[in-house]
Amino acid sequence: MTSRITTATRRGDYFSFLGLPRTLGIDERDLERRFRALSRQFHPDYFYNATSAERRASLERSSYLNDAFRMLRNPISRVEYLLTLEGVAAKGPEEAGQHVPAALLEEVFAWNEELHEIRDLRVRGAATGEWKSRLERAGKPIEAKGAAHEHQLGELSAEWDRLVTAGAPEAKRRPVLEALRDRLLERHYINNLLTGIQKELDSAPGTRTHHPAP
Fold first, then answer.
1. Contact assessment for residue 17 and residue 68, using Cβ atoms and an 8 Å cutoff
2. Which of 47, 121, 191, 209 could form a disulfide with 131, with the two C-beta atoms 3.0–4.6 Å apart?
């Protein structure tokens, strides 16, 4: 038993641990099947009468499996994890800011100013219809920008998978990873704005709007 659990469960990264290629287009049903199969293999209940070393290994593998499943199940955290594995993820806020286009930062600044003015209207007791309609108008271009980024992320993810499947060299894969990183960083700014808008709209009774993607 000890040989099986220590040899067959060598960790590696989350993709290899689950027997998957390092691609972004993962079939959710296949991922769940792999997760359940490994869960049965590593579950601590099967090692109740095993040695303490085997029980520890079982607990560690089960915990690692749960982490891997949670990370790879979500498309965005999957991209973030891939970028970390490939050494392309931004290292800290300062470096992250260097990869966000100045034009987007200017737009974000302008949108934040607009939101600040709308919040002031609300605090000063403006009619709900007045500040709410202005807030909804302010949100439309931000939502459009967010939708464009989601589309770009999908296209880049598909391009990454194509290059990996074709065995393309790092020189061809690297630009795609860098573009994925940049789109994710920009997505963070956009989603923060959408979250702010959503919070304001939620304060108006009877409002039902679309929450930003995680």
1. yes
2. 121
Summarize pLDDT for 120-150 with one digit per residue, the tens.
Answer: 888 888 888 888 888 888 889 999 999 999 9
The upper half-sphere exposure of residue 146, i.e. CA atoms within 13 Å in the direction of its Cβ, equals: 19
The answer to whether residue 115 is domain-embedded is: yes
Task: Determine the length of the chain.
Answer: 214
Q: Are residues 98 and 185 in the same domain?
A: yes
Please give the pLDDT value at position 122: 84
Q: Contact at 8 Å (CB) between 100 and 185?
A: yes
Q: Residue 86: which residues within 8 A CB-CB, separation 6 or more? A: 177
> Which residues in the chain show pLDDT less than 50?
1-9, 207-209
pTM higher than the cut 0.70: yes
- Rounded Cα distance between 158 and 59, Å, is 35
The domain boundary residue, chosen from 12, 38, 73:
73
Contacts 24+ apart (CB under 8 A), 136-141: 136/201, 138/111, 138/114, 138/197, 139/194, 139/197, 139/201, 141/111
Q: What is residue 50's DSSP assignment? A: S
Q: How many domains does the chain contain in total?
A: 2
Q: Which amino acid is at 201?
A: L
Distance CA 136, CA 198 (A): 10
pLDDT of 40 reads 82
Q: Residue 21 sits in which domain range?
A: 2-73
Helices and strands: H and E segment counts in the chain: 9, 0
